[in-house]
Amino acid sequence: MTPAATLAAAAVTGPGFLSPTGVEIAFVLVGLATLGAALVTVTTKQLVHAALWLVVALGGIAVEYLLLTAEFIAWVQVLIYLGSVVVLLLFGLMLTKAPIGRSPDADSGNRLIALGVAVVAAVALVWVVVDAFRTTWIDLDGPVQGSTKVSGEILFQHWVLPFEALSVLLLAALIGAIVLSRRNDPAETATPAGPGEKKGRR
Predict the structure, then answer these.
(1) Could you tell me if 96 and 177 are in contact, meaning their C-beta atoms sit under 8 angstroms apart?
(2) Rounded to an integer, what distance in angstroms lies between the CA atom of residue 96 and that of residue 180?
(3) How far apart are CA 167 and CA 39, in angstroms?
(4) Which pLDDT band holds residue 12 (cuts at 50, 70, 90)?
């Protein structure tokens, strides 16, 4: 078979996994870094550090969108998740007077159950994505796939209800943080004893 015939056959069969491009290698590396940041987020015992590692994980997802030529989705990821959700989490930590240092109480002791649920959810998600896009390839040299027009039509025609449900969920989380921060602690509301009074049981 001549070299020209070999190239023609490769063009017909489509791209392969044995010859990754620089973009694909960068995609895998950024994905591994994002996965590592996500694991640190859910395993650290410092709540503020967990929120900061969440910033790294969400930023890695934005980079993945950029590598997939979905610039609009990437900037939406940065503006909404990095600029709003993480700030909301930090405000929630401040309003609930969460400890700044290590918090042993943050570990509920259900790590095995949480790990099992995470593995099942990850396998289900990977299976659904692979099954849905088994024969779909993104032409990185072609026109932009994640344009504003296409993304807006898909979002506001097919995903309006989940989008609004997410906004209500964030609002409920903020209201819950405010309620918890305004709850009176019995130890703080107790009237302090006077100079001549003695503390004791009645």
Answers:
(1) yes
(2) 6
(3) 26
(4) very low
Distance between first and last Cα of the chain? 100
Contacts of 63 (CB under 8 A, 6+ apart): 30, 34, 74
Count the Cβ atoms, other than its own, within 10 Å of residue 35.
13
Separation CA 113–CA 110 (nearest Å): 5
Could you report the per-residue pLDDT of 43-68, keeping only the tens digit for each? 887 878 888 898 899 999 999 988 88
What type of residue sits at position 88? Answer: L
For residue 8, CA distances in Å to 5, 12, 17, 136 come to: 5, 6, 18, 20
Q: Is the pLDDT of residue 178 over 90?
A: no
pTM of the entire predicted model: 0.58
Residues in the chain: 202
Look up residue 159 and give its amino acid.
Answer: W
The pair of three-digit structure tokens given for residue 146, joined into one six-digit string = 């994640």
CA distance 137 to 23: 14
Secondary element (H or E) of residue 53: helix 47-67
Q: Measure the CA–CA gap between 60 and 74, rounded to whole angstroms.
A: 10
* DSSP-derived 3-state class of residue 49: helix
